[in-house]
Amino acid sequence: MSLSETKPAALGVVLVTAGSEAEANTIASFLVEQRLAACVSVFPLWSIYRWQGKIEHEPEWQLIIKTDLRQFETLSQTIRQHHSYDLPEIIALPIAAGLPDYLSWLQAQVKG
Questions:
Q1: Is residue 73 scored above 90 in pLDDT?
Q2: With 33 labelled, which of 6, 25, 39, 66 sits at a CA distance of 20 to 30 A?
Q3: For the chain, how many structural domains are there in total?
Q4: Alpha helix (H) ranges present in the chain?
Q5: CB-CB contact of 42 with 25 (8 Å)
Q6: What CATH number is associated with residue 38?
């Protein structure tokens, strides 16, 4: 099976971190309700990063957002409106391949 047979053109995942479980769940629920995401997986993690000249060690919540990347601008703006960070992580990655039935389901769940 070739990649072209398994990958609809614009599907991808968007990675976002949030400072609390409540914030992550609020963002995730809103994105699915608004059909900006088909599914959002949320799990705890520990992040180490440099912010304003200091090395930070913080617990965070990772969101893995499955979506149609043609909606990235709207998705990004929506996340920023509901996010507490001054500069939230919002990174989009294309899906290179996947189970065709799952990708069809994903595509059907989002606007676009």
A1: yes
A2: 6
A3: 1
A4: 3-6, 21-33, 72-82, 100-109
A5: yes
A6: 3.30.70.120
